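JOB MANIFEST
job_type = single_chain_structure
chain_count = 1
residues = 402
[input]
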Amino acid sequence: MTVAEVDVVPAPPLAARARSVGGSAVRDILAVTARPEVINFAGGLPAPELFDVDGIADAYRAVLAQAPERALQYSTTEGEPGLRAALAGRMSVRGLPTEADDVLVTTGSQQALSLLATALVEPGDTVLVENPCYLAALQAFGFAGARVVAVPGDGEGLDPEALEDLVVRERPKLLYTVPTFQNPTGRTLPASRRAAVAAVAARRGLWIVEDDPYGELRFEGERVPWIATYAGAEDRTVLLGSFSKVMAPGLRLGWLRAPGSLRRACAVAKQAADLHTPTVNQLAAARYLADRDLDAHVVRVAGVYRERRDAMLAGLAEALPEGSAWSRPEGGMFLWARLPSSYDTTELLPRVVRHDVAYVPGAPFHAGEPDRSTLRLCFVTQTPEEIGEGLRRLGKGLLGED
C-alpha cells in the first residue's frame, strides 16, 4: 500500500506563540541588502576590522594549550568562576558592588532576555518598554505571550510620570529599558530620570530589566550610573551586559546580574535551554581580560566610531528632506531620524535600496502605533568616505531621483 492510498492526517499545528510572533524585520532587510555594492546603514554589527583578532586568538591558544581537557568539557550552568569573578570586578569598579555569585553567564545577552521572559512572564502579563524599543526585546517578550505596552517619552527617553501612571493602571511585571545609547534612537536617559524610574519601581512594585550592550562605547560627555545603582532599585533590577559590541559578537558571551531568587530561576531556565554557554569561549574571554587591556581597546574603537558618527551627522542635512530631525548620540552605534510626516520609510525602502544604500524603517521598533516617518541609521561599519557616499545615495533615493 502506498502513501497515496492511505488517509494522511496533518501533523499537529505549531504552538500559538510560534504562529503569532513574526520574524525580525531587520534580518529580513539585511538579507535583501547583502550585496557587496550596497552601503548598508541597516545593520547593527560592530566594525569587524576593529576586532582584536590577535589578542582573541592568543587567548584561545593559551586556553587550549594549558587546559584543553577543561576548555572542551561541559561546564556549570552559572558560568566559569574566573569569568564571573572578572565580570563582577568590572561592575564593582563602575559603582555597582558585585560578587561572582551575583552573575549568570549567558549565550549572548539576547539569551538573557529569553531566560527572563521564561522566569517572569506568564501569558497575558503586561511588560512595559520604551517607545521606540529594541526590536529583539519585543520579539522575546511577545514570544512569551506578554502584552507589551510602550511608555511615552521624548528625546531624552521614557517619562517617569507616564511610567508611574502605566504601572498603576496596567500592573506590569517588568520594565525593559536600554537607558544608555539606546537601540534604535541612540538617546541616553538622564540621571534624574534614572533615579525617578528606580523610585517608581520601589514604590509600585516592578522589576527593571536594564540592558547595557553599548554603554562602554562613549565618545563624549560623562558616564551616567546604571539604574541599578540608584536607591530603590537594588533588589529589583536585572543588569544585562555583553561582549558583543566591545570584544566580538561571534563569541556569544553575555551575562545578567540579578537578585538571588530571580538569578536562580534564570539558571534553571538556562539548564533547560542549553545546559551552559560554551566553556572554551568563557575561558578565552577570561584569559583575554587577564592578559589584555579591554578598556584601552574600547577607547580605540570608540575613537573610530566617533569619527564615523561625525561623518554621518555632517551629511544628514543634505541627505534628508527639509523638515527632518535626528538625534546626536554621545556614543553607541545608532542615530534616529524623523522625516516629515508625509514620508513612509517602509514604503520608501525598496526605492532607496535600488540606489545601493539601506536603512531600517522605524515602524518595527514600536510596540504600539508606529511612527512611519522614522528610520534608524547605523554609523559604525563604514568609513567616513563610505558614509558620505551612502548619504548621497540616500538623498537621491528619498527624492526619487534616478
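[summary]
The first helix runs from residue 16 to 20.
The chain has 14 helices and 15 strands.
exit_status = 0
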